[in-house]
Amino acid sequence: MHSHPHTFSCSTSHLTKHYLNNAAPLKTLASLKKPLCGYCSNHITGTGVIFRQFPSGLKQINRRGAINSATEGQNSSTSEEKTRKVVEHICLLKAKVDLSDKDEKDMLDFLYTCQYQMRGILAISLGRISYQNLESYTHAVFMRFQKREDLAKFYENPFYLGVLKDHVTPYCHEFTYVDYESEVEDDILPIFRKGEEFNFGVEFILLIKFKDSSLGKAANDALTSFEKLLTEFPSLIVQATRGSNFNHGSKDYTHAVVIRFRSSDAFEIFMDSSEYKNIWRSKFQPIIEKKLSISFSVDPVGNELM
């Protein structure tokens, strides 16, 4: 499959250059736990596949991003910040090996255009996965909806069904869907994933299947520990959400996490860190059946704000 002309890694941001030049060994996140400045102290986010994003609209700096999830027993009214529930949709594709550049571009462009043809889509991000994964998925689509009813209408929307029939199914031979409910800060920029912080970086998507015996307390404890780790590194992460998969047609994974990293360097620093490796080894490995992690670079060309 030929390389996509619109998908490429973004350059290192000024924030990343700062902590790369001044922080001591990159094998640990300890020196990055505190924000580097007043600007980055107000930004948090995260999750696991790398793809290009095509946002449009407001050009402002995000005041603050929330890392929250809708878990059993959680009451957002008791949180320090007011949050809003959102519904996250993930679709992974396996493209045929003979997919041409033109057909790939048309496929991604038509999928992206869905947001203009129906109500309820708050944000969309999509593109080619940047490295080989064990399941051989080639492309990823991430969408955010206001509520479950909007997602249900999306699945049945004639325009979307037409896009699948004419521009996706002919070029892809396998699909995986995961849907989950989560929470973000109740502010227009983090809800719609707008502003300068979302113009660049890496999208990371992590899909997990917990053992049946671990569903409940053990799984929630592992995810809560991981979420806490993410909130400690706003210098690396813009936004993160996680939740339980409620898509009844997809039983391969029970939970999902999506993290937007500030840059490819931030992504690599976090993934190579002892903190991440330790929490994965101690909290997750004993209680999961399988996992799938993918990532892609956000396309600066596709992020031109109107």
Automatic annotation (TrEMBL):
Domain of life, per lineage: Eukaryota
Annotated protein name in UniProt: Uncharacterized protein
